[in-house]
Amino acid sequence: MSGGCRQKTSAADQGECVLVIRLGALGDFVLSTGPFAAIRRHHAGAHITLLTTATFADFARVSPFFDEVWIDTRAPLWQIGGWLGLRKRLHGAGFSRIYDLQTSDRSGFYYRLLGPGRRPQWSGIVRGCSHPHRDPERDNLHTIERQIGQLADAGIADVPPPDLSWVTGGIGRFGLDGNYALLVPGGAAHRLAKRWPASCYGALARRLAGQGVAPVVIGGPGEAELGAEIAGIGEGMHDLTGQTSFAEIVALARGASLAVGNDTGPMHLIASTGCVSVVLFSGASDPALTAPRAPEGADEVVVLRRDDLGALGVDEVERAAITLL
Fold this sequence. Notes:
By secondary structure, the chain is of the alpha/beta class. It has helices at residues 26-31, 33-42, 54-61, 80-93, 105-113, 143-153, 198-210, 224-233, 246-255, 265-271, 287-290, 314-324, and strands at residues 17-21, 47-52, 68-71, 97-100, 121-124, 131-132, 180-184, 214-217, 238-239, 258-262, 277-281, 301-305. It is elongated, with a radius of gyration of 21 Å.
């Protein structure tokens, strides 16, 4: 893999070199596509590198935002060699500015790795950086508004909403014909409180089928058992758990009549296409901070919330969904 601007033989050798840090998770990555676009426009002639995790590397490489993508192996603290290797690579690349969109303890430590001595310009929240986000309310802002404020403090005033119009992909191999709705019943395995019960998704699938809308359940490979359970309850179900790439989820969303899902990454992909979406939140997360957003001019994202999602009835979710059809 190339090592940044100093290793280039093109005009980028004499030009500006910019690094963007965005490690995850999927929903956060999608919400950052607006800031990615704004940084690309602001640094139109620069060589822009993204530092991210392996999960998002291929997705980022086909985007229009970056010239290069580095994979962060997220070395544990005790792995000194990994940290020293990253330090050497960051120094060797010759970055003139770094946008820390992760703003975590880990990414803040990367700033410290660049010392002592002169560091690149840095947009983030780490103490001593050149372009700090100074809003004392940043932790109470939605990710999008928080990043808009961060970039404003770095001199970038125009940040568009999330946009996945650049994503290409087909869904012909799934054999879907006619009217269908996406169901996203999964989520982080260690945060089961964020999931609406599988029995409720199965009941909703039956009702959608009764309205002439084919239910299509999607999820990661680790959610195949969940998808099979729902498919066993519902009727006319297409179970695609473990079969879809990020690009295919986007393509599925473009053809769907609506989507219903938990507070989980794929719902951000779906909502960002403009697919009308009902997103279910428990008390384990706050939609004011992390809810999926639709692109400008698209239909709204409907949020339904209960502290305990088991208390959210199928009737209420069906009404919200059918209203959007």
